[in-house]
Design brief:
8 helices; 20% strand; 50% helix; alpha+beta; single chain; 5-stranded antiparallel sheet; 452 residues
């Protein structure tokens, strides 16, 4: 099972957005915790300050009784009307001396400052007990307040913190996501440019390379490696083409010598059988030379040609072969010239191989149809025969070099597997394509599409 290709942009976007979402969630979770800790410290400081304020203003009168004169604003916090805070002044032994909001100690006196919580009258109180020495007497100043009182401003702020932070985090999250998408789009631009240039590379233009200008530093080594690979492939192909061309040229001389010896043989029946095999070899040499020339050919020397006239000229050359096999060639072409910038020799070889292939597979007494049509973008040449056709599983294979079907329904065909490869190479040179399908009524239908 094949895996779908992975998108770098999509992966980076998902990872970054997920990281932002996790960071936002952690922020929303941790900030209230941090806020609660800060508020608790502030409340403790406030309670300690009030206890210290009570210790500063606590004194005995002339009769020896304890008296507390607090500033008005501090005293208001402990009023019964306000009902939020309470205090108790207790001796070290735990004796209640005086207080507000309570008639008993709020906590057990201890040697040092300590906090406490208690439930009283259905209220949860939090407080501190501050040891103090007033006029030589060891006392415990105990202050507590109801933190869930509706008038506690810090609690109100704590409850609204999450909403406030969410209102702040969400726009920042969206802004960062937008910045990320813009950054990824800018990063993706050279990648898409390189992908487009790589897709545009064609065997018809072997000298093309990927551009190294305006390429990000991170991608430059990859581009240079690919260009180096293309250079090595081009050099190997050139060496291979040179070898094929040289071998084909060298074979011509011994083939000519063999033909001369065949002409001298007295056994003409044996000479005729050997002549058929020699013809196959000569045809292979000719096609090897033809395809070697096409491999070295480029479209930069193309000239306008009349494709309709070229089809008729090639068909005229092959008419004796068609007559020998009792095959008729029928044309369906426009009445006006069909002009196309092309390499005339390359197209002539392609047309000749298509027609020869159709004539060779067509049964005696049948017709090979040649149709030429054009639209706004291309010219299409169709060659149809009434032969056995091409099986669907072989339609992508028949254009390979030296490929031949294992079973031939027509024993007259003795091809070498290069004719259709020549057609495909000629199509590539012109930026076109060749395809085969089943013809209506049986047989094969070859379509050569050439961009205008």
């Amino acid at each position: 099972m094949s895996r779908r290709p992975v998108s770098i942009t999509a992966g980076a976007t998902i990872a970054f957005v997920a990281a932002l979402a996790v960071a936002a969630a952690l922020l929303l979770a941790l900030l209230p915790m941090r806020n609660n800790a800060v508020i608790e410290r502030l409340e403790t400081r406030s309670l300690v300050a009030r206890a210290e304020m009570i210790a500063q203003h606590l004194q005995r009168d002339e009769a020896g009784n304890w008296r507390l004169d607090l500033p008005q604003d501090v005293a208001a916090a402990f009023s019964i009307v306000y009902g939020r805070a309470s205090y108790a002044i207790v001796t070290a032994e735990g004796e209640f001396l005086m207080g507000a909001g309570t008639s008993a100690p709020l906590a057990i006196p201890g040697p040092g400052l300590h906090g406490f919580t208690l439930e009283r009258n259905g209220r949860a109180l939090q407080g501190v007990a501050l040891p103090a020495t007033v006029e030589g007497r060891a006392l415990s100043i105990q202050v507590a307040e109801d933190l869930r009182h509706p008038d506690v401003l810090l609690d109100d702020a704590a409850e609204g913190l999450t909403q406030d932070v969410a209102r702040l985090v969400l726009p920042v999250f969206l802004a960062l996501s937008a910045i990320l998408l813009l950054a990824l789009r800018r990063v993706r631009r050279p990648l898409r440019m390189l992908a487009a240039r790589a897709e545009a590379l064609s065997p018809a233009r072997p000298g093309e390379r990927l551009p190294e200008e305006d390429v990000p530093v991170e991608l430059l080594p990859l581009v240079r490696r690919l260009n180096g690979l293309l250079e090595r492939v081009e050099a190997a192909q050139a060496e291979q083409r040179g070898f094929v061309a040289d071998a084909a040229h060298e074979l011509r001389t011994p083939l000519a010598v063999l033909q001369a010896h065949l002409d001298l043989l007295r056994d003409r029946e044996a000479a005729a059988a050997l002549g058929q095999d020699l013809w196959v070899l000569e045809r292979m040499v000719g096609q090897l030379l033809a395809i070697a020339e096409l491999d070295d050919l480029a479209l930069n020397t193309a000239v306008p040609i009349d494709l309709r006239a070229l089809v008729r000229d090639v068909a005229a050359l092959l008419r004796p072969l068609a007559e020998a096999r009792d095959v008729t060639i029928a044309f369906d072409m426009p009445q006006v010239p069909v002009m196309l910038p092309a390499q005339e020799e390359a197209l002539a070889q392609a047309l000749a191989n298509l027609l020869e292939n159709a004539i060779g597979h067509a049964p005696g007494g049948s017709t090979v149809g040649v149709a030429l049509r054009q639209d706004a973008t291309a010219c299409v040449l169709e060659v149809r025969d009434s032969g056995p056709g091409v099986p669907e599983h072989e339609r992508k294979l028949i254009f390979r070099r030296f490929w031949r079907a294992r079973r031939r329904q027509d024993s007259r065909r003795r091809g070498v597997g290069l004719g259709l490869a020549i057609v495909q190479r000629a199509a590539e040179i012109h930026g076109g394509a060749v395809a085969v399908e089943a013809a209506p009524g049986g047989g094969a239908l070859f379509s050569l599409r050439l961009p205008r």
